[in-house]
Fold this protein.
Amino acid sequence: MIWIPLIGLIIGVGLGLSVDVTIPTQYSSYLSIAVLAALDTVFGGIRAGLERHFDSKVFISGFFSNTLLAAFLAFIGEQLGVDLYMAAVFAFGVRLFQNIAVIRRILLGKRKSVSE
Amino acid sequence: MRISRKYRFWISLFFVSLLLGFMLTVQYSVAHQPKTTLSTNYLELRSDLQMETTKQRTLADQLDKTTQLLNEYKQSNGNTGEMKNVLEKDLTKAKREAGLTTVSGPGLKIVIADQSASSSNQQTPVPVFDAQSLQMIINFLYSNGAQAIAINHQRLVTTSSIRQVNGLSDSVGSIQVNTVPIAPPYEIDAIGNITQMDAVLSVNKVVDDLTVMGKQTSIYAITKNDGIVLPPYSGTLPGRYAKQEDNTK
């Protein structure tokens, strides 16, 4: 089942390459923050799934709200002249690594229990 | 129909991954866009084009000359005497262009001497005549028809220098031309288009400026064909000490 998100990712990349969508360079920083938020949500969702308290509503709404909010935060920061996107990068970065660490532990624990 | 919790997990993960992949690709393509700086300024483009056209013309001229020379060499191939003649002609031409021969012709003689009446009681500081003032005059002349110039019998060539040496009085020679100190009165002999050179000097008010500096300037136009005689350049040439490394070894 692990290949399902991978297939989604590959299809998404293929779609992005074939559609040839470009956004103006000045908005690329917002998109990069949004991508980071999306990554964080995906890993959060995987973690929740492995911990067996996954809720698709929370997951989907989290994905969109986090992505949009992060981009909005970056936009507001730029308007105010404060590097607010740094806050988003920091928060999402820390969470991303935490999620990855938890996923790793769960997977290792599973393997251990299987081998035992 | 109710989809089980497990399936919902994978389906939502699938769609979110799809979106993520799409976003990643877009972001990647934006971040790796080739940066092209298009010059849309019409005037800039025009001046660029003009510059390139001039450059091309100069290069074409150069090519013509070199081709002609090559043909001469080819024609005299095998004939040592003729070959020598061609080479000698070439050498004379190169020497003349480099300023290593005596040249004569019509031109301007500019004499810059100290003013007899001293104006030391002036309150405002006056600009001092220095090497830069001399350079300015030379540049005016060269850009307006001067073919060959000498200052106090020091012939100017492409590697010539006009320098200000501080700490020396004018009479000893605080200005050095070709590293030789020159003392006032400064005599500038310029062979070339008299009308053009005279015009540029009067347009730029050179005489007035020099008067402010406490100098008396006289400009003589000498129209005789051998009116102005310029000595050859006598200083060291660039290749005298510094030799090119032989890279073929």
